[in-house]
Fold:
Amino acid sequence: LYADKGARAYHAFVRREPLSQLAYGHRLRDPYPNYEVVRARGPFVRNRFGHPTSVDHAICNEILRSRRFGPRAEHEASGPGGEEGDLSFLTYNPPDHTRLRRLVAPAFGPRQMRGYRGLIEQTVDDLLDDVEERGSFDLVSGFASPLPIAVISRMMGIPDSETEGFATYGAAIGTALSGVTSLRHAARLMQASRALTDVFTRLFELRRREPHDDVISHLVAAQGESITPEEMVPLCTLLLLAGFETTVNAIGNGVLALMEHRDQWERLVADPGLAGGAVEEVLRFDAPVQGTSRVSFDDTVIRGTPIGRDELVQLRIGGANRDPTVFDQPDRFDITRPNAAEHLAFSGGIHYCLGAPLARLELAVVFGALARRLPQLRRADRPVRYRRSLVIHGPAALPMRVR
Ligand code: HEM
Structure:
């Protein structure tokens, strides 16, 4: 399988992931009891850095949708600042956000999604042939990571010879989402970011000479009009990271939840048509992106809490998804929950996940195929290790048995 090398490189990286200082004392596996402590104390609690932090669904939703909050302050430049690991329009405000999001949005349209279904089904089938033969396997390296790597590589037009570097450097840069932990970490990030820049630069050259029907060819063609040369690498880095770290962890969290709630797994096995509902409940129950943040453009008051202009607010999506005022018995995992899709796992407002249709498609194919082909799937009797991050949440390794 052409994504296999990429998956192995990714996995080797995840095993050595540095522990963010912020994550000390944070329950990596089960952050939910901590969120309940926050909820009991009111709409906002100040975290150890003094930032107002909320697990309230209505508040998170309101702030994500508000045009008076953004990923950075209103008076800062809205676009690229030239920093290492720049994640493009995810961290920009309008008008730069709007322009760049519009440029890549067509790649996620319904026609394109229909075009990916075959690739996703085929990749999942090939991976399942392989794990069936082996009998026991690590879900993360042997199944969850090769799939999104294959899809995002196809979408962007990454040739096989580059997938290994693409996956390793991408994973390294992904660790920056939780903050830079040490000088060594910073040096590794810088190195990864330069190496990834080289991969992309080679590809831009290649696609300028030989355009294909892929995102990179499309960007190269738009360069100079709706995208500047400096904006190209950050945009590609965003697509790589957003398209793959999140999906790997959604698959890991989903399989873990289904294994730990065997009755729900049995329901899915009996009716794989429930896979779409399972996707929403997995995203609600154990969100792969546990939090995000916004900066206020004004002095304001939200539910009695004053928020200053330029103040950073932490929104814990994972906690909002367990808000009992929205979700009945929020700690229950129920793949037929009627309003599971009200989760905030894909955020909200103008930064709502652009890849949500693709993620939903990948996850529905995955959960449906697992239930059909491996009804006896079980966790091996070994502990799960978790990603050491406050933002990206999911297992780093999940040993499984097929029979
Ligand atoms: C943005 C989650 C899959 C591309 C986001 C945000 C979240 C998120 C929470 C917004 C963060 C914020 O508001 O600060 C997820 C989850 C996924 C997933 C949970 C899988 C289960 C994907 C995929 C792609 C993708 C497969 C693309 C291939 C993007 C992009 C943005 C984004 C481009 C930036 C949107 C903007 O700022 O306007 N995602 N994502 N995501 N995601 Fe996803």
Observations:
- Confidence is low (pLDDT under 50) at residues 19-25.
- The longest strand covers residues 292-296.
